[in-house]
Amino acid sequence: MGDTAVIVGGGIGGLAAAIGLHRTGWKVTVVERTTVLDDAGAAISLAANGLRALDGLGVGEAVRAASRGQYGGGTRTPGGTWLARMDGRALEAAVGAPIMGVPRSELHRLLREALPAEALLTAEAGPVRATGTGRVQVELGEEVLEADVVVAADGIGSGVRGRLFPAHPGPVYSGSTVLRAITDGPVDGCGDFELTWGRGAEFGHIGLRDGRAEWHAVLTVPEGTRFPDPPAELRRRFHGWHAPVPALLDATRPEAVLHHDVRELRTPLPSYAMGRVALLGDAAHAMTPNLGQGACQALEDAVVLAAALADGPTVEAALTRYDAERRPRSQAVARAARQAGRMGHQLSHPLAVAARNTAMRLAPSGATLRMLLRHHDWEPPKLGRTPGAF
Ligand SMILES: Cc1cc2nc3c(=O)[nH]c(=O)nc-3n(C[C@H](O)[C@H](O)[C@H](O)COP(=O)(O)OP(=O)(O)OC[C@H]3O[C@@H](n4cnc5c(N)ncnc54)[C@H](O)[C@@H]3O)c2cc1C
User: Fold this and answer.
1) What are the tens digits of pLDDT across the range 83-134?
2) How far is residue 2's CA from residue 26's CA, in Å, rounded to a whole number?
3) Does 244 sit in the ligand 1 pocket, CB within 6 Å?
4) Domains in the chain, ordered, with CATH?
């Protein structure tokens, strides 16, 4: 069936796919254009499905050891009233893990360390094309890499997707922009994961293992909105919100604040595979971050892809099965994430906000847990380990 794979993009999805393929005996090359990741100064929450995918890849234990479980917390109003509580112990009892928070730089380091150094190449990947001999080529400037399979893990702006699906409209602005940072040190009274929904705005945080926290502020503003002094703007907008919101902002160095517009692939892709090229992660299904599932879905993709390719019998047949397994689930999660944003921070009419808050307060106990389990309860396929490959 072949034994060489080129992965375009060394983000969470690309590195995870490379680990899965390496473990199952493929000779992998990850082509990543940058040495400093765009959002290295942020953290990420991983749910049980993402952690189980990491377990399947053999790196779950290391990632758990670098993470902090989010056992308490939930959703609040700006005045501090709880709308829903999250029971991390119940989540752990049901699916083996609470939501866990980890700095992105740590996660990347652990994924990179699970690969041989020679598998990681810093270069800009150009066009990908099929050869006449049934293999695939990736242009790297003057050079060409040839492989039996190419994995496009090149993120939301995927050049490979653009070439394979020229009629697809590509990513669109979700209506929200997000500013986020990791605090300089621990913040008094700042516990586990919390989300606070105001009118057209959200503030949230997750606790990290070393006592620091990552916070994010989501604003419903026109695309491209930028602020001359982001911390001052955030203090103005979130003034009067319950503790620890102001303290989190005060505990952050201004230069640590990252600002990105949230975009998504609102038009679903018709396929995650074409010939010997597979799309994965944000390249295939970039979603809004409202459920904290984008990277978790990329991790699921990675382990399913590696298992499909290990089962063969041909690359094309394996990629067809990968697409059939991954597209319905990841696109359903993307729809649910978009809906969660619309019902959460994007809601701004006072009556709509009041009706949502009342419905949440009256919801039967266990409703939040059941909602989370819909996405978190997922089992990876078993990856056969090729002797000596890992
Ligand atoms: C504000 C925010 C918060 C989020 N929070 C969470 C969360 O808590 N939990 C969660 O699960 N998900 C979360 N997500 C989603 C998650 O960040 C993404 O889904 C995930 O990072 C996608 O990984 P990826 O590897 O597919 O893409 P990326 O991380 O975008 O990686 C793509 C890589 O490809 C490289 N690349 C692109 N083109 C080329 C080229 N031509 N040549 C070489 N390299 C190339 C890029 O440099 C990049 O490193 C969040 C997203 C946002 C915006």
Assistant:
1) 999 889 999 999 999 999 999 999 999 999 999 999 999 999 999 999 988 8
2) 8
3) no
4) 4-69+96-172+264-344 (3.50.50.60)
